[in-house]
Write a structure and sequence with these properties.
Layout lengths: L1 E5 L5 E6 L4 E5 L5 E2 L3 E6 L7 H10 L6 E6 L4 E6 L4 E8 L5 E4 L3 E5 L2 E9 L11 E8 L1 E8 L2 E6 L4 E4 L4 E5 L4 E5 L3 H6 L5 E6 L2 E6 L3 H8 L13 H10 L3
Antiparallel strand pairs: 1-2, 2-7, 3-6, 3-10, 4-7, 5-6, 8-13, 9-12, 9-16, 10-13, 11-12, 14-19, 15-18, 16-19, 17-18
Amino acid sequence: MDAQIHGTVLPVLEVTLNPGDTIVSEAGEMSWMSQSIEMTTTTQTAGAKGVMGVLKRAVAGGGIFMTEFRSGNGAGSVSFATKMPGQILPVEVQPGSELMIQRSGFLCATEGVELTIGFQKKLGAGIFGGEGFILQKLGGSCQAWVELDGEVRVLDLAPGEVLRVNPGHVGMFQAQMPFDVQMMPGIKNKLFGGEGLFLATLTGPGRVWLQTLPIANLAHALEPYLPQPSGDNDSSGVKIVGNLLGGN
């Protein structure tokens, strides 16, 4: 197996598969592939064991169905493009070195990947698409590729060092790190600070990957340029913004 990342702002991952190699992705992630690649759609992969395993993966932001790609007759390639301007990062995952990633961050992985819900906190209606803040846990034993939005800043926190982050900027971090999402302190900060109502806290030791382009920030920047409602019953612009905030 050989993997190459092409492009800059909107990169694409191209994986060359030899006979016997397998790549797993969520349904609908594939961008293009050669004729020799065979696809199998299934629920029982990415660590899902039974119905509950499938449901836990779906709650974490993954699909109920996953797709396996194999090369059937000689070598072949399959490619996965990013959905947002950003970066594709290769990561090695082993037991004891699991990663927490943003819910839309999983791109694909080799066999042995386990994708489950790692963190969920309700933050009120309308926040993060009304579904609260959710992180996926990327585990198992595999080579994986993660999609983060915008530019990426990597920080190594010392033991006991605390980093406070706008939750949307949390792209990925080592799963053993203590993590929580809390209300912004101070009534003036909540009402007039302009930094949002919540802060995520990460405590070292461990590595954190921060992303510069949260989907909510992009939606907010685009909102003035979207069609505006012309009447009480016309909510097309609101629906578009809602879809962007919800990642749809």
